[in-house]
Amino acid sequence: MAKSDELLKALAKAVNAGGGVHSATELAFMLGVPCDPAFRKFLTASVKKGLLRRVVKGFYESRITPPEPETAIYKIIKKLRSSVLNYISLESQLSHTGDISQIVMGRVTVVTKGRSGCFDTPYGVIELTHTKQPVEKIAPHLYYDPDIKMYRADKAQAIADLKHCRRNLHMLESQVC
Asked: What are the distances in angstroms from CA 96 to CA 39, 101, 108, 176?
């Protein structure tokens, strides 16, 4: 079986298991090969052939069995900072709850215990903002959203994050800051 056929078979199995966005290392593991320069060259060729789409550096999705467009960006977020706490907050969360009238389009603002960064993906921009707050202080103000399979900040935490990051507070509907 050709390596590209093996890749498609592995990606189809991963979709059934809830996958959709994979790192180069995960793809190599699924195929049982080392993630070496030759494999990375194979991934580049797979992108050129249209089998894979590079969603952000080092992460790919299948063109044939892509993730659901509504939740794909959240899968990418979880892959980018998989070993640390991440939660939707700041403008994205306040827009989601209706506490700001602006609708955040094409951007998701995320607070993370990992490094800050901004990533342009086919699904929109992911803005990761680092927090030094201890997890014990943050955790009581988070809730799990089963639709996106991620945590979200409650209103108080999202406003506290805005203040902590020194972001614009003028957009808040109720000026209870």
From this structure: 40, 10, 11, 18
- Rounded CA-CA distance 151/46 in Å is 33
What pTM does this model have?
A: 0.85
Q: Return d(Cα 151, Cα 142) in angstroms, integer.
A: 6
What confidence tens digit (pLDDT) does each residue in 1-25 have? 788 788 878 887 776 666 688 999 9
**Per-residue exposure over 126-152, b if at least 16 CB sit within 10 Å of its own CB, e if not:** bbbbebebeeeebeebbeeeeebebbb
> Residue 174, CB half-sphere, CA atoms under 13 Å: how many?
8
Q: Which domains are present in the chain?
A: 3-62 (1.10.10.10), 72-164 (no CATH)
Q: 141: Cβ–Cβ under 8 A, 6 or more apart, which residues?
A: 153, 154, 156, 157, 160
Q: How many Cα neighbours within 13 Å face the side chain of 56?
A: 23
